Amino acid sequence: MCGIVGLFLKDKSLEPKLGDMLTDMLITMTDRGPDSAGIAIYGSEADGRTKLTVQSDAPEEAFDGLDGALAEALSSDVSIRVIDTHAVLDVAAGKAEEARSALAELRPGMRVMSAGDTIEIYKEVGLPEKVAERFDVRGMSGTHGIGHTRMATESAVTTEGAHPFSTGSDQCLVHNGSLSNHNSLRRKLRRDGVRIESQNDTEVGAAYLTWKMQNGATLGEALEGTLEDLDGFFNFVVGTKDGFGVVRDPIACKPAVMAETDQYVAFGSEYRALVNLPGIEDAKVWEPEPATVYFWNH
Amino acid sequence: MQTYDLEANGLRGLNSTLQEQNGGTNKTAWEIVNPKGSHAIAVGLDSPIDVTVKGSTGYYCAGMNQQATVRVEGSVGPGVAENMMSGQVIVEGDASQYAGATGHGGLLVIKGNASSRCGISMKGIDIVVHGNIGHMCAFMAQAGNLVVCGDAGDALGDSCYEARLFVRGSVKSLGADCIEKEMRPEHIEILKDLLERAGSDAKPEEFKRYGSARQLYNFDVDNAQAY
């Protein structure tokens, strides 16, 4: 069992409240996933800049002087914003890949959670309420966001096993379900040079999407591909820089509810995650169809 | 009319209060406000009371119902009226997966659509869906009637036993050992009665009947009464 929440805003006036609304939705899904939680939030964008969100189990040492060291390695200015075990590094656009390689050398134990113009991913082990509090998710604003509460089944309860997973620049994936062919698919993807770090099934799902898109598929085509190539149960919710997508496997035994109004599109594993959204009484509420890709774009 | 605020007074209190009502109660009409998608609302009732839920519910609403009438003025999550024995459950909106699963008796009416696995392993319950149903409905259905005024999804009636399945619209595909069957006058009668009780104005003559080809299990006509 796991819980998923997602909120894609159409009404700009709600943007300052995105983190607050998502936090309430996330906490409601604690019963479905009390062991870890995470959130991907699509916030502000600065011209000519890109962001890397990094995580460390020893943040004080890892983040100390990191901006200076990275600036030197890139010969370009870098700023850092530390939030608990995570930090957002602001680097010049086009330097993300170079920064990633430099970080691997400068701080070998540090993990890159996400990279992109607007995305930031925060995830940790612990109750969703505590995780949201550590990163002050309530205070975050943005255009759309995806949250996940985890009850681990396929691999250990660790930060890297928590969701969302990054699938590429400004892209992320969360999953409710369990994949049964992840071992064979991991081997196949690794042979093709895809980097997969954990024993986690969802990481393979995320790597699969990345691999498909690297080979020329659009996100929609990559999601269609999951229906063919992944075996098991899945509800996937994906985020892109300006979009938000949902796909369920053909068996569709994992619960999903969607709601749409003039102001937003919302996803919840259960309806109770949506009950406090504005205007929910008059929203169009439905269960997404099995084996069908849904997508919304700004 | 008794009103119970679920948000203020909690689920345990609601179900124990409703379960305490017996044949002699004069508190026969109940209204539940602020359901907010909560699970297990009005479960295990066993008296002829009338319960209205003012909003949408989560999992297992009105499960194991006996005698009571439960009306939901909204949509319901998975497993509504699961294992119902008797009474009535009426959903004004849509129902999520496995509505009426394993039900032994009573009438379940869904005025919107029902999703996958509606009536799975039904054992005598009558289910009327005004809209469409999803895939794998009436899987291993043993007895009772499933009436669908709209369309049915994939694998309808897979491995079913003696349940009767009536669909007005299209059937995406039939499951293993499920076939279309002749509509005889007695079936028209059954349908007429169910549609009337479910508040549907669909005409019984517009429906097709589906059921077991009896190739997958050892059916003996001498045991027909057992169903």
State the order of secondary-structure elements of chain A, H for helix, E for strand: EHEEHHEEHEEHEEEHHHEEEEEE
Indicate the overall shape of chain A: globular
Oligomer state equals heterodimer
Q: What's the total number of strands of chain B?
A: 11
**Order of strands, widest sheet of chain A:** 7-2-8-1-14-13-15
Largest sheet of chain A: 7 strands, antiparallel
What features would you describe in this structure?
The complex is a heterodimer of chains A (298) and B (227). Helices cover 26% and strands 33% of the residues of chain A. Chain A is α+β, with helices and mostly antiparallel strands and 298 residues long. With 227 residues, chain B is an alpha/beta fold. The interface between A and B is medium-sized, with 16 and 18 residues.
Features of the shown structure:
heterodimer; A: 298 residues; alpha+beta; 7-stranded antiparallel beta sheet; 5-stranded antiparallel beta sheet; 8 helices; 16 strands; globular; B: 227 residues; alpha/beta; 11-stranded mixed beta sheet; 3 helices; 11 strands; 12% helix
SSE blueprint and pairings:
The complex is a heterodimer of chains A (298) and B (227).
Chain A: E1 2-9, H1 18-28, E2 36-42, E3 49-55, H2 59-63, H3 66-74, E4 79-83, E5 86-92, H4 96-106, E6 111-116, E7 119-125, H5 128-134, E8 144-150, E9 165-168, E10 171-179, H6 182-191, H7 201-214, H8 219-229, E11 232-239, E12 243-248, E13 257-260, E14 264-268, E15 284-286, E16 293-297
Antiparallel strand pairs in A: 1-8, 1-14, 2-7, 2-8, 3-5, 3-6, 4-5, 9-10, 10-11, 11-12, 12-16, 13-14, 13-15
Helix pairs in contact in A: 3-4, 6-7, 7-8
Chain B: E1 2-5, H1 6-9, H2 11-20, E2 29-33, E3 50-53, E4 69-72, E5 88-91, E6 107-110, E7 123-129, E8 143-148, E9 164-167, E10 178-181, H3 185-197, E11 208-212
Parallel strand pairs in B: 1-2, 2-3, 3-4, 4-5, 5-6, 6-7, 7-8, 8-9
Antiparallel strand pairs in B: 9-11, 10-11
